[in-house]
Design goal:
This protein is α+β, with helices and mostly antiparallel strands. It folds into 2 domains: 137 residues, no CATH class; 139 residues, no CATH class. It is built from 10 helices and 9 strands. A hairpin with a 2-residue loop joins strand 3 and strand 4. Helix 8 packs antiparallel against helix 9. The longest helix has 15 residues. The N and C termini lie far apart (51 Å). The C terminus is likely disordered.
């Protein structure tokens, strides 16, 4: 039987599989102050997540034990699964799905027979899931697109995009209003872990907003405020968004809004909205909040 092979790794996935790497973006490890997400915080967002594999030690690329313990298959989703590796999360998915920052695209993924609770080990040039090897020796890093400079006022395009999607509920709207007013700390407090979805809508909003701020040159560290409150998967995406890393369709939409490309932004909406049950729409809300605020950050905001 042919061994499943990793083809591409998003920047967050690459960092997770190479925990000892240092260097330039996107491979420099980024951790919140105080280290990894506390292991005790995982239970707050179980969502049928497994823990059986937590007894297995996680090996780093040099053969030593990492400081954050075991890894396991946490959630099985359509077309793949999320792996819990200490405080990080990695999405293994098949060929043909949109690439994202924590995605590891694997050819012949179906051969793994993924089940919740399978133990996971990271070895040199391999990811071992339930005793089955996924070759990572020839995987290529996927960086995604980078937004260009703002051309004109991005708010009209953002507002046109918002008119094409569902409006947020009252609780989400309060957090969005705080972000749009530049009060990131209050917005984070209101939004972290809030809403429906595997990654709660509030977490996705924060990720979209953080990505906009990164593109505008504001290096926010919202993940430091919400660790233990955001879902573990949402926190993994938020850390990446603080580096400007999003799913490919969302990154393209952000670039279109910054570039004042009205028609292109609207044409990208279907692909963005298809990201998860609610993640795509919530990402748009967060991106638009950044555009409307013109990335104003007041004294209440982290830096």
């Amino acid at each position: 039987m042919t061994t499943p092979t990793a083809l591409f790794a998003g920047p967050g996935a690459y960092r997770t599989l190479h925990p000892n790497l240092t260097g330039s973006d996107p491979f420099t490890p980024h951790r919140p102050l105080g280290g990894q997400t506390p292991l005790s915080s995982r239970g707050a967002f179980s969502l049928q997540m497994g823990t059986r594999g937590g007894e297995n030690a996680l090996l780093n690329v040099k053969g030593g034990l990492t400081p954050f313990g075991g890894g396991w298959v946490e959630v099985v989703v359509s077309g793949g699964a999320y792996l819990a590796l200490g405080g990080d999360r990695l999405l293994v998915s098949g060929v043909g799905v949109p690439m994202g920052p924590v995605t590891l695209m694997v050819d012949r993924l179906e051969g793994l027979g993924l089940e919740v609770g399978m133990p996971v080990l990271v070895e040199t040039e391999a990811l071992v899931v339930g005793g089955q090897r996924v070759s990572t020796g020839r995987m290529r890093p996927w960086r995604g697109s980078r937004p260009g400079a703002v051309r004109g006022d991005p708010r009209p395009v953002a507002e046109a995009v918002l008119r094409r999607i569902a409006a947020p509920d009252t609780a989400i709207r309060k957090g969005l209003e705080a972000l749009a007013a530049g009060d990131v700390r209050r917005g984070a407090r209101l939004l972290a872990g809030l809403g429906r979805g595997l990654t709660p809508e509030g977490d996705d909003v924060l990720a979209g907003h953080a990505a906009w701020c990164h593109a505008a040159g504001a290096r926010l560290r919202v993940s430091e405020l919400v660790a233990g409150r955001a879902s573990p998967i949402g926190l993994a995406y938020l850390r990446c968004a603080e580096r400007g890393e999003l799913f490919a369709p969302a990154a393209a939409l952000l670039a279109a809004i910054r570039g004042g490309e009205h028609e292109r932004a609207l044409s990208l909406l279907p692909a963005v909205r298809a990201l998860g049950a609610s993640s795509g729409t919530a990402l748009v809300w967060g991106i638009a909040a950044g555009a409307v605020s013109s990335t104003t950050v007041d004294e209440h905001s982290p830096s």
